[in-house]
Amino acid sequence: MKATRTLAAAVVAVSAVLAGCASNSPSYSNNGYNSGYNNTASMGYGTIESIQVTQAENRTSGGGAVAGALIGALAGNQVGSGSGRTAATVAGGVAGAAIGNNVERNRNAGNGQEMYQVNVRMDNGEYRTVVQDSVYDLRVGNRVRLVDGRVYRY
Predict the structure, then answer these.
(1) Does domain 31-58+113-154 have CATH number 2.40.50?
(2) Which SS3 state, helix, strand or coil, does residue 48 take?
(3) pLDDT in tens, 94-150
(4) What is the DSSP letter of 133?
(5) At what angle do helices 2-21 and 63-77 cross, to 10 degrees?
(6) Torsions phi, psi for 46 (to 5 deg)
(7) Which residues contact 84 (CB under 8 A, 6 or more apart)?
(8) Domain range annotation of the chain
(9) What is the DSSP letter of 153?
(10) 76 CB contacts (<8 Å, ≥6 apart)?
(11) pLDDT computed for residue 45 by the predictor
């Protein structure tokens, strides 16, 4: 009976942790700029140098690993007695963490939407890279303007 209550409490705790870690936002910046590039100007004019298809990054929050470790350790604690129980608890925690992380990664794999990396040579000679979800009517060589992190045909 005590093990059932402990397991129920762990499931509730894990659910609360995962709910706090959940995020539906993609890993790219909301303003469209790739985080490694200069994005100080909100508007400018230039010419498209290249367009490349890319995928949004698929990262894990760590919530799956934590949840898996807790559940694995709980399951391992139910096996054996004495030092065997301790070893089973540790092994269950490690295996659970690995499995939980893989489950989270696989769950998020379908969310990796196709993105477009647009490289623009600005009129002032500067280069900008913008990552956006569509390139509708944009082609290499087009004159464009950058407004709030998006590329528009000029």
Answers:
(1) yes
(2) strand
(3) 888 889 888 887 776 666 667 889 999 999 999 999 988 888 889 999 999 999 889
(4) S
(5) 170
(6) -170, -165
(7) none
(8) 1-29+59-110, 31-58+113-154
(9) E
(10) 85, 88, 89, 90, 91, 92, 93
(11) 94
- Report the amino acid identity of residue 108: N
Residue type at 60 in one-letter notation = T
pLDDT in tens, 53-98: 887 666 677 888 888 888 888 888 888 788 888 888 888 888 888 8
Please report how many Cα atoms fall inside a 13 Å half-sphere around the Cα of residue 18, on the Cβ side: 17
pLDDT at 21 over 70: no
Band of pLDDT at residue 34, cut at 50, 70 and 90: very low
What tokens does 2 get? 């005590």
Alpha-carbon distances, residue 120 vs 27, 42, 46, 117 (angstroms): 22, 14, 6, 10
Token pair, residue 44, equals 């400018």
The verdict on pTM exceeding 0.70 is: no
